[in-house]
Amino acid sequence: MRIAVVHNLPPGGARRRVEGHLRGLEGEVKEFVLESATPVTDDAVIVPLTQRADSVPRALKPLVRYPDHLALLLAWRTLSRAVAAWSPDVVYLNPCRYLQTPPLADVGGAPIVYYCDEPRRADYEQQARSSKNTVTRLPYWLLHESERRADRRGVARASRVLTNSRYTSGTIRRAYGVDSHVVYCGVPELFTPAADALVPTHVLSVGTLIPTKGHDLVLEAVAGAGLDLPVVVVSPRSRPEEEQRLRALAERLGVQLSVRVGVSDDELLELFRRAFATMYLAVAEPYGLVSIEAQSSGCPVVVADEGGLPETVVDEAGVVVPRTAAAAARALVDLQDPRARDKAVVAARGSTARNTWAASSAQVLEHLRDVTGRARP
User: Fold this and answer.
1) Minimal CA–CA distance to 233: which of 253, 212, 248, 247?
2) For 355-370, how does the pLDDT look when each residue is reduced to its tens digit (9 = 90+)?
3) Where does the record locate the signal sequence feature (predicted)?
4) 202-353: what fold?
5) Can you give the residue ranges of every domain in the chain?
6) pLDDT, tens digit, for every residue of 321-375?
7) Which residues contact 13 (CB under 8 A, 6 or more apart)?
8) 2-186+357-372 against 202-353: fold identical
9) Does CATH place domain 2-186+357-372 in 3.40.50.2000?
10) pTM of the predicted model, to two decimals?
11) Burial of 25 (0-12, 13-18, 19+ CB in 10 A)
């Protein structure tokens, strides 16, 4: 079976999922991406794309974003033709960093299976809609409307929609009016516990440097718990404004902060293994790969009771708390009891075999076969 894997994703959780699935798919697999993506394979088909808005002064951005958007739509049309020319049996579609659902045009009649990590928050979440800049809302209205329509067209063209959690499945139904199939994510084989228990050296928070990831709540929780350990924040890419905000907060709280950007999997594994706990206090996170990767590495987790995060906690390997610094601080206080933390570590170590990319990829492959009418060979 010829499988075209399509995405436009930078480093981050969604791309990690694509990598895990792509490497586990059976058959003849070809990756197709736009130039703004980070390819997984060395022989990916890369369609040129230039986006200029981020490099111009703020006052000029509205003038540039419209031609950028047109260039993006044309690039997706070019990519669609490239996919069609390859004559796949099925297209495994993944998100676009700019639009959410890629607006694929005709791909030679091949069915499309779309893995939707989350709907476009800017269109379907009240908090995201209300956070839009009131000054630019009018100049960008036509742009946002075109993006919204492109996203909905992309979903409508899919023969089947997959997603990462029961929570996200519900949001997809409310946003687009379509049902989706839950395929949980896996963990790279690298993420395993250390042979011997290690002395904790930090509290860990992993995620993009944006306010909704909750790194500030982690700092406040560590301060509130009186835990004499530094906080390490790991992000896939740099965002100087948010880093500056977090450093100022850490200084006020008297908490030592280290920010690491673009670490390797080997480095992330070491950070998981040596963490007192990994904390994931994001706003309505669709799933939370970091949580299952931490547990597979033998690290207890503290996650917010929002989004799909509660679905990631295995047995007693973690604590699900209200998304407040006070509640997270209480969880850290409880974990300072050696017996409580040892119990969480044992449960985390036992989670390793439950979350594999092989099992996740096998489920994706079954859906791909199903929409093409192909039975398992």
Assistant:
1) 247
2) 899 999 999 999 999 9
3) none
4) Rossmann fold (3.40.50)
5) 2-186+357-372, 202-353
6) 999 999 999 999 999 999 999 999 999 988 766 789 999 999 999 999 999 997 5
7) 117, 287, 289, 290
8) yes
9) yes
10) 0.90
11) middle
